[in-house]
Amino acid sequence: MLARRTHWLKQALLGPGNAVGIRLTFDDGPHPNHTSVVLQQLETHDQEAAFFLIGQNVLQYGRPDYGRHTLGNHTYSHPRLGWFDLRGAEREIARCQAILPEATQFRAPFGRLTPGLWRATRRHGLPCMHWTLDSGDWKCRSLDDARTCAAEVIRLLRDGDTVLFHDSHPWIEPILDAVLPVISRNDLASRSEVRV
Ligand SMILES: [Zn+2]
User: Fold this and answer.
1) What's the average model confidence in pLDDT over 52-76?
2) Ligand 1 centre from 2 Cα, in Å?
3) Which residues lie near ion ligand 1 (Cβ < 5 Å)?
4) Domain tally for the chain?
5) Tens of pLDDT along 4-37?
6) How far is the CA of 27 from the centre of ligand 1 (A)?
7) Which long-range contacts does 190-194 make (Cβ < 8 Å, 24+ apart)?
8) Considering the entire predicted model, what is its pTM?
């Protein structure tokens, strides 16, 4: 089992709140090879997403044109911060925000929202955005894994979900090739229902 639903209590504590439709989110970019392909795939299927960027990756690889997508702060160096490291948390968020002033949301590295990160996000006015469904893309090591991952995501997905993917991951492209057509077909179905 690669994909995993977030425990309801963690969802309640970390958000995101109730949503309509499906929110696609991508962590750990920009990646010099995969990010532009992911952006192209989203374009092909007319899907919007939120990208949570790592500050030092932006400095190292530059920034592709994210167009209409939402950008988020994912810290400067993706550290595993100590639970009570308040100063480190502030520094990590502030450094990323200086590189990426357009970031309007925050996601904690490893989904581990420490008190320091929580406090710094308040200070910078960044709402925290957890996920309700972890695609498990980061566990894939082969094309077979990617196919399993995509099938599990499609099976588990429900309206209101915020799905975690990684545009830095080598197997993200085949996963999206399978998942995006399903999501965009659902959108079309609900739009035609409204029209009737
Ligand atoms: Zn991450």
Assistant:
1) 97
2) 17
3) 27-28, 109
4) 1
5) 888 777 777 766 666 678 999 999 999 999 999 9
6) 5
7) none
8) 0.90
Ligand 1 centroid distance, CA of 183 (Å) = 23
CATH number at residue 170: 3.20.20.370
Coil, strand or helix at 60: helix
Measured in Å, residue 111 CA sits from the centre of ligand 1 at 8
Indicate if the pLDDT at residue 113 is higher than 70: yes
Structural domain for 76, as ranges:
4-195
Least confident of 4-13, 47-56, 138-147, 150-159: 4-13
C-alpha 113 to ligand 1 mean position (Å): 12
Q: How far is the CA of 109 from the centre of ligand 1 (A)?
A: 5
What spacing in Å lies between the alpha carbon of 110 and ligand 1's midpoint?
Answer: 6
pLDDT for residue 134 is more than 50: yes
3 state DSSP class of 1:
coil
Write out 71-138 in H/E/C secondary structure.
EEECCCCCCCCCCCCHHHHHHHHHHHHHHCCCCCEECCHHHCCCHHHHHHHHHCCCCECCCCEECCHH
